Each structure stands twice: as structure tokens, then as C-alpha cells.
From TrEMBL, chain A:
Superkingdom field: Bacteria
UniProt name for this protein: non-specific serine/threonine protein kinase
Annotated organism of origin: Tahibacter aquaticus
Cited Pfam families: ATPase
UniProt EC number: 2.7.11.1
A GO molecular-function descriptor: ATP binding
TrEMBL record, chain B:
Record protein name field: Uncharacterized protein
Organism classification: Bacteria, Pseudomonadati, Pseudomonadota, Gammaproteobacteria, Lysobacterales
């Protein structure tokens, strides 16, 4: 028999928050929601309250000296979670401004306890708690009065089996405040401003009794309320299907390319298609999705450059229209990697998709907020890992300027992250720009090493032959391969090697 | 939708006043209704919030009934209804009733404009009675 206390965890009703908290909010805990003005504290509190409160588990929301209650109610009901019918039934608002203005913390405490007892409240919110703090100090009361107040409030509320939330404006975690010590949970909301962008972040500084996810987690406030974007690793559930991946190959939808890959792209692999602008990366990506659809598979495309439309890819546009391919078209400003991963995973789960295209990494980098760009490489690794864990095969395009002096596959040094690489290049032959393609890498599999010319028509990509009469193709300006040189370099058996002049 | 409370305000006064109400009686009933509103809203918006709404409703009602001219300090701890009661009682029966209805309607519309009809209904629903079903909406007597 287990004699330890069992802590029930309450679902907060805030998408992503339960994951970040480590499984929900401990019942009867004493929590602080802190952050600067405008960072979403009251919204978070209301969203949780409307989700958690029931007639059997009623909530009481004390307004103190912060936002006037009328304005708070006016603005909060703009969110879809606000349910007017819950007011005075499962949710009760109580104004404490008069009690607080007197600066008598004892009287405030008595009023809170009396109201909680009168309504048998199981969820208690005090907004804003900083007002209580300031009211106690303006009267010249010693600080231990506040400490005593917090201590007693914590004891009384927990003994009353109430889960309590203090909402307060704190500008620095270094504030010496007794509530930091007393509280069981400390949720800190921040607004990170860099250049002209602002990103909201949440940190679970403390959550007694359970393992919350460390670090800063981005969140967004929309008309539906707050959505927290848990890290990709936490969002991923399934283990990567390593075993047998090479036994199941995906057709690329480009004749000849499957052979070059050694039989197609191994299932669950990530493929990087790198090449200069206009070389045909997006066409290849569209063919990949179209081939999946032809085989009855669904796909997802994250279009960071331009939205697929009938003018440049009729087949893909039709697949999107018929919902066989989901379009993730992130228009929101200041995106985080975790938010994009969440958008992708939601669509993957919705369509049970097996193929994902990210077009392109260059557009992806521009779409995310500046504050994340410094960590783009690490973030990309998380994204690839999360998608791999979801069991999908991923094709990412990466625009790469032809330099002809070195062979690079990605401007981010991300080539090592992917399981397979296809590189496309322009070459100049007889005053014509032509395209060549090669499979550079397929992890754990044999593949072609040929550099093959290809063309693009309304039918898609058509892979041609090698260009055996030319050398130096990757230098951009190939020269004719002379049979005499071949003979000199590899003389027939029995003849000596002729030294090069 | 904004006027939804109007027939209920009229029905409530109708119900409470009965026939041939005199202005002192009208004053008492209007103030009694206001006290119920105060009781419902004070726990939520605080006494100061109710005072502010009350004073604003008087100001708005004055636009159509110029005699509703009650000036009171901006900051008072509680609503002082005595001046309103005296003012209403001094009017003719007809004028007092029209003024009382106007003040309550203005208050209701003000609240609806701030927190919406649904929440206003949730908070003040117990104050108003429903007009008799199937009967045409009538003005208060």
C-alpha cells in the first residue's frame, strides 16, 4: 500500500501549459503568476479559471488595486474562453479595493478567508498581489507584516483545500519578496524585445513536487487566449522508427531519382535539397508530395517563401485544395521554432501525414523572430528531431548561392542534420545555363554518385544523362573531356604513364 | 439587443408600483431597485465602481430630463440615494416615473456598453422581472 500523499494535477485548459508544467497544476498548490505589465498574467489566470472552475469546484477572483474590475471584465470577455453564464455560478468576482486601500493586511486576509469560506471556493485568485504589497509598505508597515500575510494566506488556503494563484507585477526576479519562498509554483511571464520584434516567453521557475520543463517557452495570445509552445522534444511522443527504415523507400515522383537514391528515400529520413535560386528545388518538393498523394499518403508543406498557387504549381495547389496536402502558411509575426513545430505536428496528426516539406530554410529563418536567429542551427536540429520522432519523412529545401570555389550544401551548416542530400547546380555549356543534380548522401545506404543533367518542363523534372564529355562541372564552367588526355592518364595495359607536361 | 432591458425595467416598475403610484412612492421604488443593483455589483466592481456608474447614468439621463441635476463629489465611498429620492418625490407623478425609468435604462445601457449584454444579464438578471409572456410590452403606469 502506498502511504505517500497523492497529488492530483489539474488540467489548466491552456494549450501546451500542462506539458510545460510537467503534467498539470498540483491541486491545493499556492502559485504566483508574475511578470511585467502587459505580459498576459491576467489573461493566463482567467483562461485557467474558466477552464478549471465547475459548480463542484468553484472559483473566486479577488480584484485588488490593479486593473479596474469593469475594464478587466470588458476586455477579458473578448477571449473565446470567457463564459458569462459561469459568473456568479462557478465563478465569483470580489473586489477588495476598499479593504486594501486601508493598508490593513490583516483585514484583507480576513476578508479573503471569509469570502472563500462563504462560497466554498476551491480555486482562489488574487489580482494584483503587488497592490497588496504596495499597500502594506506605503503605510510604513514593517516588511514582516507582508511575510506574515503571505505565510498565513498560504497556510489557510491550502488547509481549505484551495488551489491559489497570486497575480503580481514583479519586474525583477531579484526582488526580495517572501512570496517567492512561500509559493509552491512560480510562473514567470516575459516579453522579449529585440529590434522591432516582440516574443512572449514563459518560464516555470518553480513547481514543487513535479518536474517541469526548464527554460523559456514561447507563447502567443490570440482571441482564443494563450497557447504555450512546449519544446519539440516534449511534444514528440513516438520513438523514431530506426529499424527497417531502409526497407521501406518512398518514391520521389521524379523518374530516375529513386534509382539515384538507391531505391527511393528511406522512410523517416530527412532530405536536404540544396541549390541556387530557380534550380528546381520547389518543383522537386512538389513532386515529392504529389507522388505521396498518388500512393494514398497525405503530406504537409510549410511554405515560407510563397504560397503554392495554380500559377506556378497546379498539381500542388489542387492537392492543398482537396486537403490531401496541408498548407502551413505561417503569417504570424515573430514566430518561434517551437510554434512552427507545433503547427506542423498539428497538421501531421490531423491528416496522418507521412511526408513533410519545408520550403525553404532560407524563408524559415526570415520568418522566425530575430531573437531566435542566433540559435537557428540548434533550433533546426530540434525541428528535424521532432519531425523524425513523429515518424514522417521530411524534405527541406535550402537556397545556396553557387560559388564554384567550394562545395557547400547549406548556409547553416545543417547538412549533417539530414539523412540525405541532393545538390543542384547551374553549369555553363556552350553559352547556355544548364542544370545538374547529384545525390551526395543517403545515410546507411548505397546511392548513385553520378552528376546528372536535368531539365524542368510543365511535366516536371526530367533527369537526363551524365555529361561524360565534360570535366569540372562543379566548377561551373566545365571543359571538354579529351580522349587523348584520357589515354595519357590511363594508358592501355603494357604502356607506361606519360608524365604530364 | 442593447435595449433588451427596457421592457424588463418597465415591467419591474409596473409590478412594484401598481396602479396610481404617487411620486414619493415612485421615488422609493426607483431607489429600492437601485439598491438591489448596487448590491449585485458592489462585490464585483467595488463601491467606487458603482458610484461612478451611478453618477454617469444621472448625467446621461439629464440630457432628456433636465431636472435630473444632481451634482455630487466625484469620490464618495458609497452611493447617496437620498438626493435622488428627494428629487423624484418633488416631481409630478408622471414626470417622476418617466425620470425614474430613464435613469434605470441609462444605467442598464451603460453597463451593457461596458461589459456586454450577456454578462450584464448574468449580474443583474435577478433584479428585473420578465414582462408577462404573450402580452405587448407596455410602458410603466
Amino acid at each position: 500500500m502506498n502511504h505517500t500523499a497523492t497529488i492530483q494535477r489539474l488540467g489548466t485548459g491552456v494549450p501546451g501549459l500542462d506539458e510545460v508544467l510537467g503534467g498539470g497544476l498540483p491541486e491545493f498548490s499556492f502559485n504566483l503568476i508574475a511578470g511585467a505589465p502587459g505580459c498576459g498574467k491576467t489573461t493566463l489566470a482567467h483562461q485557467m479559471m474558466f477552464a478549471m472552475a465547475t459548480p463542484e469546484r468553484p472559483a473566486i477572483y479577488f480584484t485588488v488595486l490593479g486593473e479596474p474590475p469593469l475594464k478587466m471584465l470588458r476586455y477579458q470577455q473578448q477571449f473565446s474562453y470567457f463564459d458569462s453564464t459561469a459568473i456568479n455560478r462557478s465563478i465569483r468576482f470580489v473586489n477588495l479595493s476598499d479593504d486594501t486601500l486601508k493598508g490593513d493586511l490583516g483585514a484583507v486576509l480576513q476578508r479573503i478567508v471569509a469570502e472563500v469560506r462563504a462560497h466554498d471556493s476551491a480555486l482562489v485568485f488574487v489580482d494584483s498581489f503587488r497592490s497588496v504589497v504596495l499597500a502594506s509598505t506605503t503605510e510604513g508597515k514593517p516588511n514582516h507584516a507582508l511575510q506574515q500575510f503571505v505565510q498565513q494566506l498560504g497556510v489557510l488556503m491550502t488547509s481549505w483545500q484551495a488551489t491559489t494563484f497570486l497575480i503580481g507585477e514583479y519586474f525583477a526576479e531579484s526582488d526580495a519578496n517572501p512570496v517567492f519562498t512561500v509559493c509552491d509554483g512560480l510562473i514567470w511571464l516575459r516579453q522579449s524585445v529585440e529590434r522591432n520584434s516582440m516574443v512572449r516567453k514563459m518560464e516555470i521557475v518553480k513547481m514543487r513536487g513535479q518536474s517541469s520543463l526548464p527554460g523559456l517557452h514561447t507563447f502567443r495570445i490570440t482571441s482564443a487566449g494563450i497557447q504555450v509552445f512546449a519544446p519539440a522534444r516534449a511534444a514528440a511522443i513516438d520513438d523514431r522508427p530506426d529499424s527497417g527504415a531502409l526497407d521501406f523507400r518512398l518514391g520521389m515522383g521524379v523518374p530516375g531519382l529513386d534509382d539515384m537514391l538507391g531505391g527511393g528515400l528511406p522512410r523517416g529520413y530527412s532530405l536536404l535539397v540544396a541549390g541556387p535560386s530557380g534550380s528546381g528545388k520547389s518543383v522537386l518538393a512538389a513532386a515529392f508530395l504529389a507522388e505521396g498523394a498518388r500512393r494514398g499518403e497525405s503530406g504537409v508543406i510549410a511554405a515560407f517563401e510563397r504560397r503554392p498557387n495554380p500559377f506556378y504549381n497546379r498539381a500542388l495547389a489542387e492537392l492543398i485544395r482537396s486537403d490531401r496536402v496541408a498548407l502551413v502558411d505561417p503569417q504570424a509575426p515573430d514566430l518561434s521554432i517551437d510554434e512552427i513545430v507545433r503547427l506542423l505536428l498539428d497538421e501531421i496528426h490531423r491528416l496522418k501525414a507521412t511526408r513533410v516539406v519545408i520550403d525553404s530554410l532560407s524563408g524559415f529563418e526570415l520568418a522566425i523572430a530575430p531573437t531566435f536567429r542566433a540559435d537557428f542551427r540548434e533550433s533546426l536540429a530540434r525541428l528535424v528531431m521532432a519531425l523524425a520522432h513523429a515518424g514522417v519523412s521530411v524534405l527541406m529545401t535550402s537556397e545556396l548561392e553557387d560559388r564554384y570555389t567550394d562545395l557547400r550544401f547549406s548556409p547553416y551548416g545543417t547538412a549533417f542534420l539530414t539523412d540525405a542530400i541532393i545538390v543542384q547546380r547551374y553549369i555553363e555549356v556552350h553559352s547556355e545555363i544548364r542544370r545538374v543534380m547529384a545525390v551526395v548522401k543517403v545515410r546507411g545506404s548505397t546511392h548513385s554518385h553520378e552528376l546528372r543533367e536535368f531539365t524542368i518542363s510543365t511535366e516536371g523534372i526530367c533527369i537526363g544523362d551524365k555529361l561524360p564529355d565534360y570535366v569540372g562541372l562543379l566548377g561551373g564552367r566545365p571543359t571538354t573531356h579529351h580522349p587523348v588526355q584520357e589515354w595519357v592518364s590511363n594508358p592501355p595495359a603494357g604502356m607506361g604513364t606519360v608524365p604530364a607536361s | 439587443m442593447e435595449d433588451t432591458f427596457s421592457p424588463r425595467i418597465a415591467a419591474t416598475l409596473n409590478h412594484r408600483l401598481g396602479q396610481d403610484a404617487t411620486s414619493p412612492h415612485i421615488a422609493d421604488v426607483v431607489v429600492a431597485v437601485y439598491r438591489e443593483i448596487e448590491g449585485a455589483l458592489t462585490p464585483i466592481v467595488g463601491p467606487g465602481g458603482v458610484v461612478a456608474l451611478y453618477q454617469r447614468s444621472l448625467h446621461l439621463a439629464k440630457a432628456t430630463h433636465h431636472w435630473i441635476d444632481i451634482s455630487s463629489p466625484a469620490q464618495t465611498p458609497r452611493v447617496d440615494f437620498s438626493t435622488l429620492r428627494t428629487l423624484l418625490a418633488q416631481q409630478t407623478d408622471e414626470t417622476a416615473l418617466a425620470g425614474g425609468v430613464e435613469i434605470l435604462e441609462r444605467f442598464s445601457r451603460l453597463l451593457v456598453s461596458l461589459i456586454g449584454l450577456s454578462l450584464s444579464e448574468q449580474l443583474l438578471g435577478a433584479v428585473w422581472i420578465q414582462p408577462p409572456a404573450g402580452s405587448p410590452v407596455q410602458d410603466a403606469p
